[in-house]
Write a structure and sequence with these properties.
The chain is of the alpha+beta class. The chain has 8 helices and 10 strands. It folds into 2 domains: 84 residues, Rossmann fold (3-Layer(aba) Sandwich); 63 residues, Dna Ligase, domain 1 (2-Layer Sandwich). The protein has a 4-stranded antiparallel beta sheet, sandwiched between helices. α3 packs across α4, α4 packs antiparallel against α5 and α5 crosses α6. The two termini are 21 Å apart.
């Protein structure tokens, strides 16, 4: 979608994607077929682009950092990406700027999970810190007796335990800031989830 929108605005879009003939590649003016962390591909992308961005947050932050260090104009920057990739860092950042989130606890072990349940109460939602989305990489923990199974279910990976939210609905807002500091905010959209997805 990003490539199509940029093309309509007159930009020539070249994407980096490991999948040959990827969906974005089919609607772009060019594609570099390589891994997101391929040094040669990153160099070519940085040297041939007026600006570099990404459409989803699972691009390695180290790759975005390399592009920025090479002098490429990268937005959002690597720090914003790194924060968005880690649920604990994301909530910590949001709290630091005055945004309210559910209470949470970092979880790096079964003992951390049990301590988090003791502090937050049950039920609570255990999520992988990275890579989970649309109900993947998460499990409800309804009691301390379920902790070991929940920890195993997420692969004993670094996680976050979130207190249960008084959830009515989920809204999303998209905002963009230009290099000149101008901000555009788009209308709220409501996300409809069925079965956690």
């Amino acid at each position: 979608m990003l490539s199509q929108a940029a093309s309509r605005l007159g930009f020539n879009v070249v994407i980096l994607d490991p999948e040959e003939n990827s969906p974005a590649g089919r609607v772009s003016q060019g594609q570099i077929v390589a891994a997101y962390d391929d040094p040669t591909a990153l160099r070519v992308l940085g040297q041939t682009s007026q600006a570099v961005t990404f459409e989803f947050e699972n691009v390695p932050a180290a790759s975005v950092e390399k592009l920025a260090e090479s002098g490429a104009v990268v937005a959002p920057g690597p720090r914003a990406l790194a924060v968005a990739q880690d649920r604990v860092e994301e909530k910590t950042f949001l709290n630091s700027v005055g945004a309210t989130t559910v209470d949470f606890a970092p979880v790096d072990s079964l003992d951390d999970l049990l301590a988090g349940l003791d502090r937050l109460g049950a039920p609570a939602l255990l999520k992988t810190r990275r890579d989970g989305y649309d109900g993947k990489g998460q499990v409800w923990v309804r009691s301390a007796g379920e902790a070991a199974d929940a920890w195993s279910a997420i692969g004993e990976r670094p996680a976050i335990l979130e207190a249960k939210a008084a959830f009515t609905r989920e809204l999303s807002v998209i905002a963009a800031r230009g290099r000149d500091g101008a901000v555009a905010v788009y209308p709220l959209g409501e996300n409809i989830h069925k079965g956690g997805v």
